[in-house]
Every structure is written in C-alpha cells, then in structure tokens.
Amino acid sequence: MPDAEDTCPACGSAAVRVLFSATDRLYRTTSKVFQIVECRNCRLIRLHPLPSPTELNTYYPPDYWFVPETTAAGRLEQTYRRFVLRDHIRFVERSIRESEEQGLVLDVGCGGGLFLQMLRRRIGALVRVGAGLRFAGLDFSLEAAHVAWRRSGVPAMCATLTHAPLAPSTCAAITMFHVLEHLYDPCAYLDAAHRLLKPDGRLIVQVPNAACWQFLVLGERWNGIDAPRHLIDFRLSDLDSLLDQCGFEVLRHKHFSLRDNPAGLATSLAPDLDPMARRLRHVAETPRQRLWKDLAYVALAAASLPFTLLEAACRAGSTIMVEARKKS
Question: Is 25 contained in some domain?
C-alpha cells in the first residue's frame, strides 16, 4: 500500500484501494511489478509505487517514437500512420480555424514530427487560416527533436513545456497527444500552456480513458494502462476537473481516435504483434516476417473498429480528446 507521502495528485488523499498489479507488458523494459490504485476520495487512478525520474527514464526504450524506414514494412507503417492521423489533423484544424488566433502552433511531445508535418501542409492549403501561423515541436528527447527537424522538416526544441524557450501569449494552439499521463505533475504543464497561449488560443489534449469499456473488460491487459510509463490514468471527469483547476474552459470532447482506439485494442489483445513494440524490443524477424506481422496487426485493428466505434458512440471510447481555451 502507498505510504503517507504517496498522496493523490488531485486531492492530496493517501487513502487508496488496489485495483490490480501490472508490469511492462508491451516493451518489457523491467520485470518489476507495480500496483494500479484508485484514490478512495476522488477516484483518480494512478501507478504505485511511482518510479523516481532516473528509474522512469529506463522504462523508455531508445527511439521511443516513430522513425520511418525505407523497407516495404516501413513504407506500409508510414502509409498507415498518415491515414489514421487525418483524424487528429481535422480536429486540430477546426480548433485553429474557429479561434482565428495567429502565432505559433506547438506540438508538445512531437516525437518524429509526422503530425506537425501533416498539419502544416493541411493548414498551408487554407490561405486565410494559415497566413500568420508558424509550427514547431517540443520533446524532452534530443534525438526525437533531431528526427523531427531532419526527417520531417519541422523546427523542434528539446525541452520540457515548463521550461520552453517561448515568450508568454505567443501560441495560437498547443497540442498534447498522450503526454499528461506520463507526468508526475500534469498541472505544471497545463499552467505552462495557459501562460503561453494567446487569449483565444486553443489547447488540444488527448489521454487514454480509464472509464472505457476496454478497461472494464481487459483490466491490466488494457493497453491504456501501459505500466510503468503511465503515471496517472484519467477518466473524462478527472481531465475536465484538472483543466478547470488550471484555468481552462472545455469546448469540445471527442471519444474516438482512428489512430489510437482500434490499434489500442489490437495491441491489448496481441501485444507481440504491435509494430513499435517489436521494433523497440529488437525482435529478430526477416523482412517477410515483419511484413506479415504488420499486415496481421492492421487486420486485427480493422476488426477492432466496430467495437471501438460503438464504445465511443456511448461516450466510453478508449481515448479522450479535448479542446479547451482560457477562461474569460
């Protein structure tokens, strides 16, 4: 059980109930067993014990982002990712268009920069909307920032958002896709975003949804837990409360992600087929084996689509995407 110092980051209570135990099922960086606990006061779900920052760093394999390759399997992965990312592009484009703010569009946790590359091209086609916009990525990994700049042509900084080399009120939009659940203190990042956004700028956040059907059915096998990298597991109410606490007004929710919901279920059911997990674990396979495994994974994700669409229609999708702005 957590000691008295291991308190809930949302309400400060130390009282918890243990839901189950979990380990690194996906990347197998450790055999250490963690507990997934729920706060008895506010019901926030989190990892216990929390690893130290030094320990946590060892749970992120090198190249923990997508790096396109020139093989047949690599081209297939690139084509697939471009197709499913359109969902994110449309959501963010609408947010930028409706806010009408000009300035920097900053993607926090940009990885290899593919999302920003696609968004810049899409917004660039909308002359009135994109005329005064600039695009940049930010990642805590120097290698990721380098890949984003060199391969995707996206300016990128190696920094945390709390120490980003940016002036206040310079951002027209800030995106954080699957970032908050990795942080010890999500409020610090949201406070930084609040400071950097223009008055009517937009914050777009996406996290796994701990109130989804997949979690109820699969428990510790649900990919959204991703122990030990995910430190906090948010429900919709948790995320909305956090945004409100940090001075944001929620404008829109989205419960389905074409990139994440079907693929997440496929990974939960068959983690050994996940292309990124196989690459990061350096699984020995021939190019033909890799291609067939990738095709099998895509087929499983496609077969998962009807279920993930149904749970999302019932507001119980495995991810939550939120658009917010600063309170008036």
Answer: no
CA separation for the pair 278, 264 (Å, rounded):
15
CATH number at residue 180: 3.40.50.150
The tokens for 155 are 């300016």
For residue 2, what pLDDT is reported? Answer: 37
The residue type at 327: K
Give the tokens for residue 251. Answer: 């404008």
Residue 65 in domain: no
| pLDDT per residue as tens digits for the range 196-242 | 999 999 999 999 999 999 999 999 999 999 999 999 999 999 999 99
Task: Give the type of residue at 320.
Answer: I
For 51-60, how does the pLDDT look when each residue is reduced to its tens digit (9 = 90+)?
Answer: 999 999 999 9
Residue 283 contacts by C-beta under 8 Å, 6 or more apart in sequence? none
Between CA 319 and CA 283 the distance in angstroms is 28
pLDDT of residue 12: 87
Closest C-alpha among 198, 133, 142 to residue 167? 198
Tokens for 138, please give them.
């930010």
How many domains are there within the chain?
1
9 has a pLDDT exceeding 90? no
The maximal CA–CA distance of the chain, rounded, in angstroms, is: 57
* In a domain? residue 78: yes
| Domain around 166 | 72-209+235-263+307-326
